Amino acid sequence: MKIRDILRAAQSSIAGRYIPDARFEAELLLMHSLGINRVELYTDLERPLSGPERSAYWHLVERRLCHEPAAYITGEVQFYGIDLRVDRRVLIPRPETEMLVEMALGFLSHRTPGKALVADIGTGSGAMAVALARLCPDAFVYGIDISPMALEVARLNVARYGLQDRVMLVQGDLLGPLPQAVDLVVANLPYVKQDELSGLMPEVRVFEPEMALNGGVDGLALIGRLISQVGKHLLLGGMLLLEIGHEHGEAVVGLVRNRLSDWNVKVVRDMAGINRMVVIETVPVAAGSKVGTAGMNRPLE
Ligand code: GLN
For residue range 95-127, what is the model confidence (pLDDT) as tens digits? Predict the structure, then answer.
């Protein structure tokens, strides 16, 4: 059987389980199984597969047919152009979350030069922490997660990019373990309402860690606590970027107005026009100040 034929067979089996992008998924698993890239795949379409190659591939396809996400099967995912290790200990980073990285990089690029302090709360695989540290050489990033198992995965990703000296991973609850105030807090916390968990697609419901998804009764349990805590952890001129559930925009703005009354807050939509992110800024620094962002109230390092 040639590569072309087995791909077609895999595509139709995957599509038969109502999994979208069946062709893409079939190719992804085959590239992983054979250890080849996309160009090699396309130039090799007429190559016959050996028996062992065929059965190794079909074993992966069967896992996908049972709705295991391809990222867990291959152990890899791309996030903001960076290759990350993932497994069932962590949520698979989503493309939507790249928007937070984009916004964070914009914020960091407007700071006056000097070391920027960043915290990624609920870092999971370390996706945002690694992307920010890699793309912003002036940044020092704390990656905090309550799950020690998630941090083991994050540690692999930090080491993969040699960022051990600029990304510090800490186990603990939200901002609790943060050792100093920072310029920027980013967080993609769990925000799925508890009673909506059972309605999620099996890829998410069965395979991804519930701890990374379950946002309590209203979905805002963790985001609400983070907003309550953040005041004393952000430096003057600092920013908090939160990924939110699509129906949470107003509620999160309400929480911010309540607890951080004079801070600026706005909801930002994603490219599909869905509320995706809340941007919260501390009181702006007075015009003419040389501080830019943090500065004056920066604690000793
Ligand atoms: N966007 C995730 C989903 O696919 C939810 C992630 C989260 O709770 N932060 O359901």
Answer: 999 999 999 999 999 877 778 999 999 999 999
Averaged pLDDT score across all residues of the chain = 93
- The DSSP call for residue 47 is P
**Mean pLDDT score, 71-80:** 98
- Give, using CA atoms, the residue closest to atom 1 of ligand 1: 94
Which whole-number Å values give the CA distances from 168 to 18, 151, 219, 260, 287, in the listed order?
41, 11, 28, 28, 33
Task: State in Å: Cα 289 to ligand 1 middle.
Answer: 39
pLDDT > 70? residue 295: no
pLDDT at 144 over 60: yes
Residue 201 exposure: Cα atoms within 13 Å on the Cβ side: 9
> Quick check: helix, strand or coil at residue 79?
strand
| Ligand 1 center–CA 265 separation, angstroms | 22
Exposed/middle/buried for residue 45 (C-beta within 10 Å: 0-12, 13-18, 19+): exposed
Q: pTM of the entire structure?
A: 0.92
Q: H/E element holding 269? A: strand 264-269
Amino acid letter at 160? R
For a ligand 1 pocket test, name from 86, 91, 147 the mutation site with the most ligand atoms within 8 angstroms of its C-beta: 91
* All domains of the chain in start order, with CATH: 3-66 (1.10.8), 91-287 (3.40.50.150)
